[in-house]
Amino acid sequence: MIDNLILGFETAVTPENLLWCFIGVVLGTVIGMLPGLGSATGVAILLPVTLTLEPVSALIMLAGIYYGSQYGASTSSILISTPGDSSSVVLTLDGYQMARKGRAGAALAIAALSSFLAAILSLIGLMALAQPIADLALNFGPPENLAIILFGLATIVSFAGENVLRGITMAAVGLLVSMVGVAAGFTTARFTFGSVNLLSGLDFIAIMIGLFAIGEVLHQIHRGGEAPIRAGFKDLLVTRTELRRSVAPALRGTGLGFGIGVLPGAGATLASFMSYGLEKQVSKNKAEIGTGAVEGVAAPEAANNAAANASFVPTLALGIPGSGTTAVLLGAFILFGLQPGPLLFEQQPDLVWGLLVSFFFGNLLLLILNLPLAPVFAQILRLPYSYLYPLVLFLSLVGAFALSNNTFTIWVVLVSGLLGYFMKRFDFPAAPFVLGLVLGPLLERSLVQTSALGQGNLFIVFERPLSAVLMILALLALAAPVISWVFRKLRAQRKHGRAASPAVKNMS
Amino acid sequence: MEIQKKARVLTAAATLIAAGVALSGCGNGGGESGGGGEFNPQGNVTMIVPFAAGGGSDIAGRSTAAGLEEVTGRTISVENIEGGSGAVGYSNFMGRQGDPNYLLATETSLVTLPLTQDVEYTYEDFTPIMKLGEDYTLIVAQADSELETCTDLTDQGSEGGAKVAIAGVGGLDDMTFSLMEEATGSTLDRVPFESGAELITALLGGEVDAISLNPGEVAGQLESGDLKALCAASEERYEYEMLADIPTAKEQGLDVALAQFRGFIAPGGISEEARDYWIEMGQQYAETEAYQTYIEDNMLQANTAFGDDFVSYLAENQKLVEPLLTE
Amino acid sequence: MYDETRAENGSEASNATSKSRPAVADVVGTSVLGLVGLFAAVMGLRYGVTAEGGQVGPGFLPLVTGGFVVLASLAELVRMFFFETTTYEGSFMQVVEEVEEEAREAVAEAGEHNPELDTFGRTSGERRRAILLIFGILFAAVVLIPVIGLLLALTLMVMSILIFVERKSIVVALVVAAAAFAVIYVIFVLGLRVPVPTGMLGLV
Fold this sequence. Notes:
The complex is a heterotrimer.
Chain A: H1 2-12, H2 15-33, H3 39-46, H4 55-80, H5 91-137, H6 142-154, H7 156-159, H8 164-178, E1 181-182, E2 189-190, H9 204-223, H10 240-261, H11 267-282, H12 295-310, H13 312-318, H14 324-335, H15 344-347, H16 349-378, H17 385-404, H18 407-425, H19 430-453, H20 460-463, H21 465-496, H22 502-507
Antiparallel strand pairs in A: 1-2
Helix pairs in contact in A: 1-16, 2-4, 2-16, 3-4, 3-14, 4-5, 4-12, 4-14, 4-16, 5-10, 5-12, 5-13, 5-16, 6-19, 6-21, 8-19, 9-17, 9-18, 9-19, 10-11, 10-12, 11-12, 17-18
Chain B: H1 2-20, E1 45-49, H2 56-72, E2 76-80, H3 87-94, E3 102-107, H4 109-116, E4 127-135, E5 138-142, H5 150-158, E6 162-166, H6 172-184, E7 188-192, H7 196-204, E8 210-213, H8 215-224, E9 227-232, E10 260-266, H9 272-287, H10 289-297, E11 305-306, H11 307-325
Parallel strand pairs in B: 1-2, 1-3, 6-7, 6-8
Antiparallel strand pairs in B: 3-10, 4-10, 4-11, 5-8, 5-9
Chain C: H1 4-16, H2 23-47, H3 60-82, H4 92-110, H5 124-148, H6 150-165, H7 170-191
Helix pairs in contact in C: 1-2, 2-3, 5-6, 6-7
C-alpha cells in the first residue's frame, strides 16, 4: 500500500503530469458549467487530442475533466438554475434559492468544499478497498438494481413539494417520457410515431435544459423578474454557521454517494437525488430544505462527487465501467494499448496509482480555484436580468445542439422549455419528473432482466436476500412520509377544515 | 535530460493554449493538395458506433477512427448512438444519406437486424467500404463454474436450467447460442443486456451460467483467471498464444462456428469519388501499424475486403445467417 | 395540448388571491397528465404486455406506469372537487412568491420605479406580451437555423430580444450579441470543435 502510494506520487508529481492534471480540471470545470456538455461528452470530445500524450498523462487529464466537470456543473445550477449535468439537477432546488437570497457566493463555496471533502474521502475508500468493494458490488444483479432504482424513485416523496401525490405522478410521467424509443431487450419502437430522431429516445439532458433553463427564463419574465442582487463582496463569503451546518450532510452525502457509485450503472444522478431525500428526512433543519438551505447544497454535491470517484472502483478493479464517463475512459485505456481488467492494478501499478494520486492533486487544484472564484462567479448575478437571460438562452440552445450534433435536440429543448414554464407557473414540480426520466431506462432494463432471470416471475426480487431488504427499504421510504403526511393532513383538517378558503370553492 | 524535460513542459503548456483556443487549426486544409483534384470530404468526420462505449464495436470504431485520422489527416470524432441492439444507430445513419462526412463502425448486425426487426433498411441502402477482419466468439463461464466444456452447457440446458446473457437480440452471441441449441436440442434461456461489459458483470455476479464474447472483450478476465473459456465457436483453434489451448466447439462434438465481421460503411447515395476516396483511405489504413496493433490486440482474423468484395461478402453472409434467424 | 386561455384565467385568479391556489390550472394540468397516462397505457397494451414465456414485454412498463398516472390523476381530481382544498403552506411556489414580494418592495423603496411595474419596468399586461414575444423569437430563430446557421440565428435571437423585448438601443444590442457570439464561437467551435450547422448560406 505504502509502496504503491510512493509509486503513485512518483508518477503523478512531475511538472508535466501536474500540468496535464491542471489542464484537465480547468477544461472540466468549463465543460461542466456549459449546459448540455457533461463529463461523458467532454471526455469523448477531448479524447482524440490526448492520443499523442503518454498514456499516464492522457488518463490523468481525462480523469481531471471528469471530476472537474462535477465542480463546474453545480456552478451553473446554483447561479442560473441551468444544470450543467444531470447529477446537478438537485442543486437547482436549494442552491438556486440560496443564490436568489443573495447567498450565491456561499452556496458555491459550500458546493466546492463538500465536493472536495467527498472527493478526498471517497478517494481513500477507492485506494484502500477497491478490490473487496468491487467484488461486493458484483452481488448486485438485475433484481438488486431493480430494487435500488425503486428505492431511488421512492425518495421522490421528499422533494415532491406539499402535494406528494402530484410529485409521484410527475415522476411517473417522467418514466413514461423516458420510454420513447427502442427499449433494451426488445425490437419494438415505442411512441416514436415513425420518427427516426425519436428511435433513440428523448435525450434527458435536452429536456432538462428546456425545463430548467428556458422554463426558468420565461417564468422570471412572467413574474416580473428578480432585482439584480446588490450584495456586497463580504456578503458573498460563506459564514461559520453555514460551514458548521454543512459538515454532517456532506459526510452523509459522501457515504451514500460512494455506496451508490460503486454499483455499475446506478450513478451520480441517483446518488444526488437520494442524498437530498435523506437530508429531507434526517437533517436538523429539514423544514428549511427546499427554501435555500446549505444542507440541500452540501449533501447532493458531496454525493455526486463521491459517486463519480466510486465509479472508478469497478472500472479499475474489474475492468467494468461504473458510469457513462468511465466507459469512455475504458475506451481510452484500450486505445492506449492497455488491457482493462482485474489485472490492471498488478500489471500497470504506476499508471493506476499515478492516476489515483493525481485525483488528490486535481481536487486540491479545484478547491483552490473554486473558493476564490465563488464570489467572482457570483458577480454574474449583478448583471441585470434583462441582459443575463438572452445569454442564458443562447448558451442553452448551443449546448443542446452540442449534445448530439442534431438540430432536433433544439426542438426538444424548445418544447420542454414551454412545458417547464407551465410546470413552474402552476406548481407541477420538475425535479421528480427529471428523476423519473433519468431512472426510466435503468428501471426498465433491470425489470426486463429480472423477469428473464425469473422466467417471468418478478417476485424473485423478494427471494434474494439483498434485493428483498432493498425492496422493503424502498417500500418503507415510500410509505413512511405518506403515512405521516396523511396523519398530519387529517389533524390539520380537523383543526382548520371548516374555514376553507371561499375563493377556491368558487373556482371549482 | 533537463532540457528535454523543460521542452516537454513547454509542449504541454503549448497544448493547453491550443486546447483552449484553436484546436480546429490542424484539422482543416491538411489533405487538400494530396491527390490533385480528387474528391475530398470537407470538415470533420463522424464515426457512428451503434453500441455503447466500452464494447467490442466501440473499440473497433475508435481504433478505425484513429487509424483513418492518421491516413486522412483530418478529425474523426466517434459518436455512440446506442439502443435497440444497434437499430437506433443504423436508422440514425440512414438519415445521413449522401453525406460522405459520416461513417459507421459496422459488424454482423448490419445483416442480421433487417432480418429480425422491423427496420427500414438493408445493407444495400449503405455504401460498404471496408471489412477489417473477422471475429469469432469464446463461450466463457466463471472460473469456479462446474461447467468445463460447451457440451456441459448444452447438457445443462437440456435438463432445463441454463441461463445465458446476450448483448442484443439477434446478435452474434444470440445466434451462436441458437446454433448450439439446434445442434443439441437443448434450451438456453436468454437474459438481454446492452454491452459486453454488462455481460461480464452478469457472469461475474453469478446471474448467468455462460456468455459468448469476442476474445478481445474477455482477455483481461481470462488472463486474471476470473473467467475460463469453455470452447471457441470457431472453425479452427486460435493462433494467438493466450488462446491456443482453447478447444473449438467442433472438437467437443458441437458443430458450431460463427464469425462476426467488423468494418466500416458510408451512407448510401454518396458520390463515386467519395466512395473511392474512402476505399483508398481504408486500403492505406490496412497497411499501417495501427491496423496491425488493433487486429492483434483484439485477436481478430485479419482478412480484409473492400468495396465490391465487401458487398459480395455481405450477400454470402446474409445467406448463411438467414435460416438461423427466420425459422 | 395545453388550454392556454383557461390557464391564463387561472393566473389572473392567482394574482388576485395570493394565498390560495386557483383550481382551474390544477384541474387542467391534472387532466392533461391523466390523458398522457391513458394514451401510454393504451399504447402499452398494443406493444404487448408480455413477451414469450410470460416475461415482461415492451408494453408492460407503459401500461403499468400509464395506468398509475390515470389512477393518480383521477384521485387528484376527486380530491379537488369533493374534498376541501388544502392550503399550500411552505410550498415551493410560495417561497418563490415571497422572494418576489421582497424584491418588489426593495425596488419600490429604492424609488426608481413605479411600484406597479416590475424590475423590468413592465406592467403585468406587458409581461404577458413579453413572454409570447420571447417564445416567438425563439421559435423563429430555430426555424432560421437551416437557413443562416446555428450561431447566426441565435445571435440574431439575442439581438431581437434586446431590441424588441427589452427596448435597448440597437448599438447596445449589437455589442452584447456580438460579444456573446464571439465567446460562444471560441468555446464551442474553436475549443470543442462542435460541428455547428452553417445553414444554406454556409457562413459561420
